[in-house]
Amino acid sequence: xxxxxxxxxxxxxxxxxxRAGWAHLACVERDPAAAATLRVAGFHTVVADAxxxxxxxxxxxxxxxxxxxxxxxxxxxxxxxxAADERDGWPVxxxxxxxxxxxxxxxxxxxGWSYHLDLCGGGQAACPACHLEGVAAExxxxxxxxxxxxxxxxxxxxxxRRRRLILWAGPLPLDxxxxxxSHARPEAAEDQGLRPWLTMGAAIGDTxxxxxxxxxxxxxxxxxxxxxxxxxxxxxxxxxxxxxxxxKGTRANAVADWSFNGGPDRASDAAFLVAGIxxxxxxxxxxxxxxxxxxxxxxxVSQRYTQVGNAVPPALAEAxxxxxxxxxxxxxxxxxxxxxxxxxxxxxxxxxxxxxxxxAA
Length: 361
Prior knowledge:
The protein is of the alpha/beta class. The chain is 32% helix and 13% strand. The protein folds into two domains: 2-186 and 311-360, Vaccinia Virus protein VP39 (Rossmann fold), CATH 3.40.50; 200-303, no CATH class. It has eleven helices and nine strands. A seven-stranded mixed sheet has the order 3-2-1-4-5-7-6, with helices on both faces. The protein has a two-stranded parallel sheet with strand order 8-9. α2 (32-40) links the parallel β2 and β3 (45-47). α3 runs parallel beside α4 (128-142) and α8 (282-289) runs parallel beside α9 (301-310). The mean pLDDT is 93.
């Protein structure tokens, strides 16, 4: 039940997979500040560019390879250049799979990878969705079963709306809807037998108020500063997405005529609307991500904000990790019983059977 992580970042996925029951062989991260955080948090860390790592050293030892490649080639903020972006991490991820040969594979990234560029015509490497379709095809050549999930961290107890694409691959088919959620919209939670979404107020309401303006920048609560302080009801909802731009604070400012340029869509925008606060603090960002507020972030203030904004919510990784772990245990039991994997795969395809997401709940 060992896992190797590629593009491990500050350790959000690491913590989630650890909670799910996986043991880390290595967390590969090239950013020194994020790697320092990982090491202090207790994870075996390889500080290196993934292209320079000998993943063959883990062959036969890693049941799972987790990857969180750079999101910029698929995100609007990164101009969505797909394979044309030098930051594209999918080729090295596939190379790591070939070298490591894990039983299972999981990858997390932004939904932007699943959207085609206008008039792309299909098959264009510069189109994120076309590129991802190629990656999915490559996974299909390496694993008997593959799929994709669209998950929202709020559905797994994270006080933040954070929608993510999860790619999976392995020897058994997994639930096409992914791991069963633990939370839902308040108006639907009771009927579904789930808990209501966690709110921004429950997570950081003790610090997100005017009483903290003596230690950080706040805008006056008046009509001259747009919607500042006018929407306290946002505390009763999950926060918008925590981004790497939280260091800059809210998009609402005098230069932008107090507009959000299409938002509010970052956590600091919500802080402005709730209490006129320009930006969330690092510990608030950690709590909104579902990481401990005392997570040992290392590096400059800017580097720490980047780590928080790029983090995988641990609860999201834990849910995916639990489902794969349950499937892995079933797979190892089948192998021990002498079941032929190829024959089993054919039978599962015919019967359209999959490992249900609720087994991880």
